[in-house]
């Protein structure tokens, strides 16, 4: 973690040493590039782990195509398995056994409260060679609205609880995933100050919903097939996930997918060499127009040679006219127009008294009188006399 002191440590020097040695215990079970099926005793047809991808959280602090512009630099048909919210012994132990039967390594994002309740479950993860990250202390679904003061204890206590559950705290990875993927500016900025790598996901299987294990399996494979590779988010706390996981691994092997295990870089374990474009969710190509001007090459104007001011002789004449040919008449001004302008009558110059102020004669506004039109009086028409009224008289 490059000598970054985490806020949750009790002693700065001891935790710097912890961070420099991060993942040593995790990596002890991963000496080879991957656990192939042939290296899975008793399971010759196991899926296995094809390779280990070492990442530097400082260089790529936020990953996951669902929310960020960068994701893991996976090759086609490569999958990273991740599990959230554990450990819960009833289901987490079954998930661990299923992965062990296939010699598959995954990344687990544990909740601090769960780690305190089942520290043995956290130690099992590390002992099996899996990567252990953190998922906050209490799993609040409000990180997108939290202030910095609210974020700090959730992140710090989650890390402290998980580290305390491990036999060797250096096995804790600097990986963090926001509960519910409800990311916010406060948690992202704070995670960056701690040197944590924020994990989102590339696709989901919706195993937190009240659906069957078969539906979880179908969604996982369908969405993986649509992308061709990526980070799959699952939960090791549900019976439906336990039911779906063997089917998912079997289908991955049948379709030629390969498992990749992700660990964090340390001074003794350098990051896997990659190109910047390998991390981009949308990689540029020759067929994709890019609305961006090329960079201008810097020029040292002070040291550049300065020429004297150009004259007409510097341009020369590319196609000189023959002597017998008359020069073309200028387009402007026309001689006729020039003659008319010179002979046009001029108005006399105004007297200087015209512009004097105040004027010698006071200015008075002219009054306009509106003529009054006399209309002849019109007598009203006599009212008609009704016969009934005459009879009453």
Automatic annotation (TrEMBL):
Function: Is involved in generating a small heat-stable compound (Nod), an acylated oligomer of N-acetylglucosamine, that stimulates mitosis in various plant protoplasts.
Origin: domain of life: Bacteria
SUPFAM superfamilies assigned: Glycoside hydrolase/deacetylase
Residue ranges annotated for the NodB homology domain, each copy included: 77-260
Protein name: Chitooligosaccharide deacetylase
Keywords in alphabetical order: Hydrolase, Metal-binding
Biased composition (Low complexity): 378-393
Span list, region Disordered: 366-393
PANTHER family according to UniProt: CHITIN DEACETYLASE 1-RELATED, GLYCOSYL TRANSFERASE-RELATED
Annotated source species: Bradyrhizobium denitrificans
InterPro entries: Glyco_hydro/deAcase_b/a-brl, NODB_dom, Polysacc_deacetylase_ArnD
Family in the record: Belongs to the polysaccharide deacetylase family.
């Amino acid at each position: 973690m490059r000598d970054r002191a985490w806020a949750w440590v009790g002693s700065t020097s001891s935790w710097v040493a912890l961070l420099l040695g991060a993942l040593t215990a995790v990596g002890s079970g991963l000496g080879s590039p991957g656990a192939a099926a042939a290296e899975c005793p008793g399971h010759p047809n196991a899926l296995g782990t094809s390779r280990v991808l070492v990442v530097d959280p400082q260089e790529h602090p936020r990953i996951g195509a669902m929310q960020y512009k960068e994701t893991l630099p996976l090759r086609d048909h490569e999958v990273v398995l991740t599990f959230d919210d554990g450990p819960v012994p009833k289901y987490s132990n079954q998930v661990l056994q299923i992965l062990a039967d296939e010699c598959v390594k995954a990344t687990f994002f544990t909740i601090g409260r769960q780690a305190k309740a089942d520290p043995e479950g956290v130690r099992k993860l590390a002992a099996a060679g899996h990567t252990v990250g953190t998922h906050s202390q209490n799993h609040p679904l409000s990180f997108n609205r939290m202030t910095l003061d609210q974020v700090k204890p959730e992140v710090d206590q989650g890390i402290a609880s998980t580290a305390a559950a491990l036999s060797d705290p250096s096995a804790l990875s600097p990986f963090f995933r926001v509960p519910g993927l409800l990311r916010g500016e406060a948690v992202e900025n704070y995670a960056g100050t701690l040197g944590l790598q924020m994990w989102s996901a590339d696709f989901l299987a919706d195993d937190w919903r009240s659906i069957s294990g078969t539906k979880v399996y179908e969604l996982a494979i369908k969405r993986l097939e649509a992308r061709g590779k990526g980070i799959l988010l699952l939960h090791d706390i549900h019976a439906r996930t336990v039911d779906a996981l063997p089917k998912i691994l079997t289908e991955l092997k049948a379709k030629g997918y390969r498992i990749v295990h992700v660990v964090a870089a340390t001074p003794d374990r350098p990051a896997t060499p990659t190109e910047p474009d390998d991390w981009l969710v949308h990689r540029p190509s020759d067929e994709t127009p890019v609305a961006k001007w090329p960079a201008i090459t810097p020029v040292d104007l002070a040291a550049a040679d300065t020429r004297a001011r150009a004259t007409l002789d510097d341009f020369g004449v590319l196609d000189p006219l023959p002597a017998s040919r008359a020069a073309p008449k200028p387009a402007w001004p026309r001689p006729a127009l020039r003659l008319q302008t010179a002979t046009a009558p001029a108005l006399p110059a105004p007297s200087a008294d015209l512009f004097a102020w105040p004027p010698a004669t006071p200015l008075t506004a002219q009054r306009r009188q509106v003529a009054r039109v006399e209309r002849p009086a019109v007598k009203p028409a006599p009212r008609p006399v009704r016969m009934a009224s005459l009879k009453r008289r």
